[in-house]
Amino acid sequence: MTQVPDWLERLAAQAQQAKVPRYLLPPADGGREAAVLMLFGEGPLGPDVLLIQRSTRGRRHPGQPAFPGGGVDPGDGGPVGAALREAEEETGVDPTGVHVLCTMPELYLNHSDNRVTPVVAWWRVPSAVHAASPDEVDSVERVPIAELVDPGNRIMLRHPSGMAGPAFRVRGMVVWGFTAMVLDSVLRAAGLERPWDTARVEQLPPDILGLASRS
């Protein structure tokens, strides 16, 4: 069992009051309630965060790295219950070893009509994880924070629409879109971000774009 580190306590305090960008503000009504689990822990290489690589065969964001998560079901009791249930279903994580610190403000994803609540948690008793739902998840990774903040692993990716956003190249994955945007903001809020070249802009790779177009 490990104690919640100071940087995560600091992040949790700020995350609850985070200002939502206008383009991510939820509408007055409508949208599907969803939640993702941002599970931080202490791994062999220092602090890390749990990410999944979604199945390339799936219908939801095929092949895309993401936080475990999904829609809020009636029996979940809200976003926290949904995030923990989905994480267990997708990665096999034991929810009893997870200490939930806070929820972040709801974020609206227009293309999927989802109102997503990020749930910030600490892995006080780590458990073994794997791709527990092969139809939805290809792989599971505990990605070290040190690799995420390494300036050499950070780029800006531009979509053909012209929009560009932060991305990470880690563990053979290109983390982009919503997941990268949230990671970028929380690493900054936790005081862990290192200076990196935001002028390093690349086009979204054709294989990733092809998979994204199926979503």
| Number of discrete helical segments | 5
Structural class: alpha+beta
Q: How many angstroms separate the termini?
A: 39 Å
Strand content: 25-35%
The low-confidence parts are none
The CATH superfamily of the domain at 6-145 appears as Nucleoside Triphosphate Pyrophosphohydrolase
Number of separate strands: 12
| Coarse shape | globular
- Rounded to an integer in angstroms, the radius of gyration calculated over CA atoms is 16 Å
Give a short account of the largest sheet.
8 strands, mixed
What is the CATH-assigned architecture of the domain at 6-145?
Alpha-Beta Complex
CATH topology of the domain at 6-145: Nucleoside Triphosphate Pyrophosphohydrolase
The percent range for helix content is 10-25%
Q: How confident overall, as mean pLDDT?
A: 92
CATH domain class of the domain at 6-145: Alpha Beta
Give the SSE order as H and E letters.
Answer: HEEEEHEEEEHEEEHEH
Describe the protein's topology:
Layout: H1 6-15, E1 32-43, E2 46-54, E3 65-66, E4 69-71, H2 79-91, E5 98-103, E6 107-109, E7 114-123, E8 137-144, H3 145-148, E9 154-158, E10 164-170, E11 173-175, H4 177-189, E12 201-203, H5 206-212
Parallel strand pairs: 1-7, 9-12
Antiparallel strand pairs: 1-2, 1-4, 2-3, 2-8, 5-7, 6-7, 9-10, 10-11
